[in-house]
Structure formats: C-alpha cells, structure tokens
Specification:
Length: about 325
C-alpha cells in the first residue's frame, strides 16, 4: 500500500493572443512532467522545488495575459492515490527509448567516432529527461536502465576498445618530484580524456615526459606509467575520469581554471551536466584527428588549444576575483 501523496495543482487558462506563448507554456508543462487531470488542470507530486517551478510558470502565464492558480492538496484515498500515480506512468516512454536504443545499435559499426559521441549524447539526454520526470519508478525504469547501460558499454567497445572501467579505491597524494622525466603510456588514437590527461601531465606534472601510444593495454612496458586503461597507474576511480584522478593525485584541484577544463573533459568522456565549451572542443578534436598524421602530432595541436582555454579560464577567474573586492 502506497502512502498518500500531496499534490501541486496548477489551474490555468493560457493566453489566447499568442500561439507562440501557448506553445512555450505547453512545452514547459511537459518538460516538468505535469500530468493532465482535465483541460486546464495540471498535476505534480508535491516537493518544494517543483512547487517553486510551477509558481514561476504561473507568474509567467499571468504576465503573458493568461491566468494561473496554484493549489496544494492530498490524496483522499488509496483509490485516488492509485489513479493519480497512474497518470505518471512512464512505461510507454521507456519502451520507446528501448526501441530507439535497439535501432541505434544497428548503425553503430562504421560510424565516425564524433558521430557516435553525438548519438550517445542525444540518447543520453532522451534517457535522462524521462528519468527526471519519473516520480514513481516501476519495473519499466529498471529495464530501461539495463538497456541504457548495455548500449553505453556497446558504444564504448566500438569507439575505444580497452575503455577503462571505474575502480573503487582511494586516490593517494603523490609528490611531483617522483614523477619527473618518466615515460607515460596510454591507448593510441587518443580522444578527449587521454589527450587532456597527456596535456596535464606535460604541462603540470612532468614537463620532460615521453609518451607511448599503445596498440593494446597489454603492450604497456613495465617501466612506463600507464594511464586511462584498466590496470593503469592512473585511470577512472569512482565517478572521476583519468584527468580528474591525475588532478587529485598531484593536488591540482585548487586551480579553478583546471577545474573548468576537468568539467568539460568529464562531460565529454562519461556525460554529466552540460558544459558550454564541450561541443566546440569536441569538434576541434574531431577535425584535428582527421588532419594530424599520428597521436604525437594530435597531442601537440590539441595542447595549444588546451593552453589557450586554460589561459582564458585563468583570466576569467582572476577578473571575477578582482571584481568581487571592495
């Protein structure tokens, strides 16, 4: 037996003069996951955050010439509770997503890596948008999560054989002096996390570093420091990608410009909150990989891009800090 819920009800009349405004408000209601009780009456399970969002929407509707009233009420019985919860059943949405994932699997092979990453981002957004409004998860959510994880693993295997799996262990603090003039090794055909990690190593950890690009993680020489593959000295730990693990290992996390770059690398490598610079950097990476003859040349070219981004972020941070002083 489910506990009786409290609900936020938005009773509204949309503005009649502007079709554009009406469409905007309909889309906003859908994006918030509102259920339709009847024409003009929308329902959400109550939380303070959701009610605040509805209140802001109600104000916008009023400012546009419509009317909106926000109320709060509990379910009066188990029957009503079940009826209201049924309005939020996302099974059809999950089934459609699972179908889209199945279709996408058929076109993965033969696609360029940049195209695959765009496909992965689009489907991730679709999946996360359903999860965000699935207020009463059922078995359908479990099936969709399994299908999503399977699809991500499939794409990772196609794009980058040997893509590391996160481990759960503590990140030790290391001394920079013990890591100078070393040989570092990672998988060839470097992409975002590997190229950014190599840049970080050369720029902040080991200026005299030498890099080996491996055909397979098994080919890593015992004397080399491996990064971004299973069993490497530096690889994914928990939710952190290799770039973030290197920053934590060498106490570089106090640098706000590096943190900005880390957020971009994380999003492009494993997903997460949108980062404005991510799409542009990914496009530059894809183009540079087409133009350059090998991974050494690619690292040199992308290092200049990362140098420029780091300088920009550092300047922005410094300017913001000076502006906040009285």
């Amino acid at each position: 037996m489910n506990p009786l819920s409290t609900w936020s009800l938005l009773i509204l009349t949309l503005p009649t003069e502007s079709a554009t405004a009406r469409m905007r408000f309909w889309r906003a209601l859908k994006a918030k996951g509102c259920a339709v009780l009847r024409d003009g009456i929308y329902l959400l399970p109550f939380t303070a955050e959701r009610e605040t969002a509805l209140r802001e929407l109600a104000t916008a509707i009023g400012d546009s010439g419509g009317t909106a009233h926000l109320l709060r009420a509990p379910s009066l019985s188990q029957e009503q509770e079940a009826e209201f919860r049924d309005l939020f059943d996302r099974s059809n949405d999950y089934d459609a997503l699972i179908g889209a994932l199945s279709d996408a699997r058929k076109i993965v092979f033969g696609q360029a890596e940049a195209e695959l990453r765009r496909l992965l981002r689009r489907l991730r957004r679709d999946y996360e948008s359903i999860v965000a409004i699935d207020f009463f998860p059922t078995e359908a959510a479990t099936r969709a999560d399994a299908a999503w994880q399977d699809f991500v693993a499939h794409v990772d295997t196609v794009m980058s054989p040997g893509e590391p799996h996160p481990t759960e262990r503590a990140i030790r603090t290391l001394a920079l002096k013990d890591y100078r003039g070393r040989t570092w090794a990672t998988r060839k055909r470097i992409w975002v996390d590997r190229v950014a990690s190599a840049w970080l190593i050369r720029r902040f950890i080991d200026p005299d570093s030498r890099f080996i690009w491996l055909t397979s993680p098994d080919a890593c020489p015992p004397s080399a420091l491996g990064f971004d593959f299973d069993g490497a000295a530096f690889t994914h730990i928990g939710e952190r990608v290799t770039f973030e693990v290197l920053m934590a290992s060498f106490e570089l996390e106090s640098d706000p410009a590096l943190l900005r770059l880390a957020a971009m690398v994380h999003t492009l490598d494993v997903g997460g909150a949108p980062v404005p610079e991510a799409i542009g950097f990914e496009a530059i990476m894809a183009g540079a990989r087409e133009r350059t003859v090998n991974d050494d040349a690619l690292l040199d070219e992308i290092s200049r891009v990362l140098d420029s981004m780091y300088t920009h972020f550092a300047a922005v941070t410094k300017s913001a800090g000076q502006g906040g002083r009285s």
